[in-house]
Design goal:
The complex is a heterodimer of chains A (about 120) and B (about 170). Chain A is mainly β and about 120 residues long. Chain A is about 10% helix and about 40% strand. The radius of gyration of chain A is 14 Å and the shape is globular. The relative contact order of chain A is 0.25. Chain B is mostly helical. Chain B has one domain: Ferritin. Helices cover about 80% and strands about 0% of the residues of chain B. The longest helix of chain B is centred in the C-terminal third of the chain and has 30 residues. Chain B is elongated and about 45 Å long. The chains are: A mainly beta (about 120), B mainly alpha (about 170).
């Protein structure tokens, strides 16, 4: 992506992961300049496990659906929406922007989680 | 049997009855599969016939979620070499589910939506009650019990969503 473009909060990386390409957040120094960490959140028992994680901007977050039916990871504040993640599938984004972001499974609203994103500096 | 009465009451949208007796794992498997199938059938009908987008989406989710649970239950039963055993409760659930489907087929528009959602609220409430009082405590096999415990929160989410829709429909 062009460095001059505005920095986005998240970058969907499922396709890049599948093809083994290097990952980078849009325009930011985060993922490209440091060793990004992948954090896994399980979707299990209609809960996000763990329900809260603390990460660094530029890190990847993977949601792995271990339930028997679809879930989503959706955050209007953070600007991401996985869409329906089928049973056994996963979905990954890069989180670029610091902040605290609540998210929800839009199919099962009592299912909520939180990302706490620290700056890289 | 008391647990039969509880689920029959649910099917009739009546308050659940206190559960007393203890089903076997094979009977639990049949009850779970039938209870899910009843909701799958109603959900498919609501997905195609519901007047409001919320009701159609809810019906689609019921069909998807409960089908997923039944697939897992069938795989577990096969792994455990557990043959589901039909019983008074499963037969009653099936018969009442069929009657309810026929009632729904005779309705349309807002009347269909209200009848479907009212039933979903009562049904999920009663199934949760029976899960907690009888099915989970009675399950002898740990894997079966784990499956029931794992899907329980989804039923809570379904109940909550059904209540939201029920409220929006103006009950």
């Amino acid at each position: 992506m062009a460095p001059s473009r505005p920095r986005t909060l998240v970058t969907v990386v499922a396709a890049a992961l599948a093809s083994g390409l290097a990952l980078g957040a849009c325009g930011g120094p985060s993922a490209a300049d440091r060793d990004a960490v992948t954090h896994t959140v399980r979707m299990s028992g209609t809960s996000f496990v763990p329900a809260e994680i603390t990460i660094t901007a530029g890190d990847r977050v993977t949601w792995l659906n271990e339930d028997y039916f679809p879930h989503t990871a959706t955050s209007e504040a953070a600007g991401f929406d996985s869409g329906a993640v089928a049973a056994g599938d996963s979905w990954t984004v890069v989180i670029d922007r610091p902040g605290t972001f609540d998210y929800v499974c839009s199919l099962h609203p009592p299912m909520v989680g939180r990302l706490i994103v620290h700056d890289t500096e | 049997m008391h647990w039969t009465a509880a689920l029959t009451a649910a099917a009739l949208a009546l308050p659940a009855v206190v559960v007393a007796q203890t089903p076997t794992d094979a009977q639990i498997a049949a009850i779970v599969v039938t209870a899910n199938q009843v909701d799958i059938d109603a959900g498919k009908l609501a997905a195609s016939k519901g007047a409001s987008a919320d009701v159609r989406a809810f019906g689609e989710m019921m069909a998807t979620d409960h089908a997923g649970v039944n697939k897992a239950a069938a795989e577990l039963a096969a792994r455990l070499k557990l043959t589901p055993e039909e019983n008074d409760t499963s037969r009653s659930l099936k018969a009442d589910g069929d009657r309810h489907l026929e009632q729904l087929r005779g309705l349309s528009g807002a009347a269909f939506d209200r009848a479907y959602i009212d039933r979903e609220v009562a049904y999920h409430q009663a199934v949760l009650d029976v899960l907690d009082r009888t099915l989970i405590p009675s399950a002898q096999n740990a894997a079966l019990r784990n499956l029931l415990e794992k899907v329980r929160p989804a039923f809570v989410a379904h109940l909550e969503r059904a209540r939201q829709i029920q409220s929006a429909l103006g009950r």
